[in-house]
Amino acid sequence: MEIITTLSDLAAWVQQAKRQGESIGLVPTMGYLHEGHISLVDMAKSENAKVIMSIFVNPAQFGPNEDFDRYPRDLERDSKLAAAAGTDVIFAPTAEEMYPRETHIQLSAGPLADVLCGAKRPGHFDGVLKVVTKLFHLVQPDRAYFGQKDAQQLAIIESLVEDFNFPLSIRRGETVREDDGLAKSSRNVYLSEQERKEAVHLRKALLIGKEAVLKNEEAVQQVTEYLEREVSGKIDYVELLSYPTLDQHIQDQAILALAVQFEKARLIDNIIFTVEGKN
Ligand code: AMP
Question: Quick check: 187 and 73 in contact, CB under 8 A?
Fold first, then answer.
């Protein structure tokens, strides 16, 4: 497996793959890999001749008081995991390489970012769009892989591709979980022992909420009350919306999503399910 750090080496690799008529699958990540990331590589491998994973902790998507400096990083460990999964190339640029200067044009995620994490993390999804747009142009993938764990991100990137006719398809990966149901996340390493025990209740709360929705009961309140009882972290939000449109008019697919701020880690999780005949 090759590790590429510069845009010029990346361009040469992309050109070579294109010349050989090989399809490219892109798995964008911020590293500190876990089975969630690897499941996206597995999907990408099954659908493309070449798989490239980007590992870049994107400063543009972190707010001033967020965990950019503390975000876990370990390229050596990541390289072993990515290679073992059959990744062909890791693209791991520096921030200077990706952003040699401030961009003149700014991308805005619009109304899809007015809810859930977007409402709590102003500018976050604009920063995601910035890096993803660059990655799509640099890598020119046939397919790019994103996890439903970050369901709002996925919805926004699907809109970007559709709205602006990016010539690639976005593929959705299921959320990979620990045995007790906690969604795998690079940030889980920052949970204390006690918080790790409590974190299992995020998924449990979502399952309770889903049942409530299907029984036409008030779900958000039930989920909130359950979390207030079971976790010491601060509830950032609990929301029930349509998916992937992220509005209040639930017709077919619904998303129940939550975020909990623990001492050092903010965890998110969601469940997406079919709701028939609701409005
Ligand atoms: P991150 O490194 O956290 O930015 O995540 C990179 C990609 O992996 C994103 O598309 C995430 O949605 C996806 N991802 C993160 N955690 C999981 C998980 N537990 N299961 C599936 N995909 C995940």
Answer: no
C-alpha 62/C-alpha 12 separation (Å) is 30
Nearest to 165 by CA among 203, 133, 130, 118: 133
Does residue 58's CB lie within 6 angstroms of at least one atom of ligand 1?
no
> Is 277 within 8 Å of 252 (Cβ atoms)?
no
Vertex 75: Cα angle to 265 and 1 (nearest 5) = 135
Interior/surface letters 229-261, b for 16+ CB within 10 angstroms, e for the rest: ebbebeebbbbbbbbbbbeeebeeebbbbbbbe
Pocket test for ligand 1, best of 26, 27, 29, 185 (most atoms within 8 A of CB): 29
List, for residues 206-254, the tens digit of each pLDDT value: 999 999 999 999 999 999 999 999 999 999 999 999 999 999 999 899 9
User: Which atom of ligand 1 is the closest one to the Cα of 37?
Assistant: 8
Q: Write down the catalytic residue from 34, 37, 104, 137.
A: 37
What average pLDDT does this structure show over 99-126?
Answer: 97
**21 backbone φψ class: left, alpha, beta (φ>0; ψ -120 to 50):** left
Which residues make Cβ contacts (< 8 Å) with residue 19, sequence separation at least 6?
none
Single-letter amino acid code for the residue at 21: G
Q: Is the CB of 175 under 6 A from ligand 1?
A: yes
Which among 186, 181, 176 is positioned nearest to 43, based on CA atoms? 176
249 among known catalytic residues: no
177 secondary structure, DSSP code: B
Model confidence at 277, pLDDT cuts 50, 70, 90, reads low
pLDDT of residue 276: 81
